[in-house]
Request: fold
Amino acid sequence: MYKNGIKRCLDFTLSLCGVIVLSPILVVLAVLVRVKLGSPILFKQERPGKDERIFTLCKFRTMTDKRDAEGNLLPDVERLTKFGKFLRATSLDELPELFNILKGDMSMIGPRPLLVSYLPYYTERERLRHSVRPGLTGLAQVSGRNFLDWDRRFQKDVEYVEHLTFGMDLKVLWMTVQTVLGHTDEVAEDTNAAEGNFAEIRKKRLEETGSLEA
Reply:
């Protein structure tokens, strides 16, 4: 009952309250992003949601559009400014995802939505992460996300799905608050983790062993 009904009602209520209460901060951040980083204000990217349906995730942009003499975008490290790093470190760049939650594309808590290009490289068990709405934060994020390899991160996602209850969501929410207030990097958006691009790693594993399993 919680998973299929109450959770969505709580998501809608909390995200609506969040948008209303945080609207002054959202406006200030939007202005600062426009002045410091340029236009557009929002970074939009397609991500897989529940049942692998594709939706458009929205975040505040954290990088400039600086290009070289030939018009090619400079590497990410050169386009990421101090202000952009601040947005990521404080997770303020994630606030526009509240609108994704309002629409029903996402949940307050659940596995983070990753790249569409990763879809062919999940194992059958790992695909369980897409049986629920993706979240603004999740069990993997508060369990040392940037310090876990991909296999262990997806194990945490599946663990969350298999034990999804109101108590589990409260646990993840409390751990998220502790993490953010502690100014750690565990909830920072990092789709490639420390070990590199997931799709490239799994493709290499498939070529070498004939299986996506570790």
